[in-house]
Amino acid sequence: MYRSPSYKTYEVNALFADSLSARLPVAGSIPRDYIFFNYPSSNEGYEAAGRDLKNPFESNAVNLAEGKRLYTNFCMHCHGETGNGDGQLIGTGKFPPPPSYSSGVSSRGGNMRDLTDGKIYHTITYGINLMGPHASQVNPAERWKITMYVHELAKAGTAPAPAASDSTAAPKDSTVAMN
Hints:
Blueprint: H1 43-52, H2 61-74, H3 76-79, H4 117-126, H5 140-157
Helix pairs in contact: 1-4, 2-5, 4-5
């Protein structure tokens, strides 16, 4: 390796008519480990992803635990622990809250709890409003697990309220001496 056969930056290359040594990749080449996502960052792409994409991972305890861990690391600071849009950053008052997963309305229309896997995945990938894209921080498998966990938060927030206690029952006497 005393003499490297590679060209240095901006070195003249006699093999090409333009003499440039820095070449563009061949048209149609795909970077290693690149996963193709054929849905543009637009409302049409969002709707198409919502219609076409389904979570490929089985909903089980292991995947949900991983989804919760990822949600805690990447989402909870804005969306809050329960997904109600009350995260630590929102509590500062400097940012408007994101909609609640269980009772909020999406800025693209529809209830948040009714969002499909594909719509959530698309939003994590490209972001929306103040939420930036997370495609560079969270790989596709992790995005699907976060999507799975977001659905669980939406379900948890819409659970029926506990039955009201019978108001006709006599209140417990708290003044009775305990012996």
